[in-house]
Amino acid sequence: MSDPVQHLDRLETPVMHQSKLVPIAWLLCAAGAGAFAACFFIDGGAPRAWSALLGGLMLPLYVAVGSLFFLAVHALCGARWTVPLQRIMEGVGAGLPISVVAFLALGAIGLPFVYDWSLENPARGDLFRDPHGSKAAWMTDLRWFVTGAVTLAVWATLQRRIATAATPRLGAITLIVLVPTFTLFTWDAILALHVQFVSAVFGGYCLVSAIHAFLAATALALAWQSRRGLAAVARPHLLKDVGTWLVAWSCIVAYVSYVQYLIISFTNMDEETFWYLMRVQHGYGQEYAVGIVLRCILPFALLMSQSLRSKSWALGAAGAAILLGTFIELHWLIVPAFSPNHFRSPLGPEALVSLGFAAGAFLLAVRHWRRRGLVPTGDPRLLPAINAEHLH
Question: Is residue 1 over pLDDT 60?
Answer without folding.
Answer: no
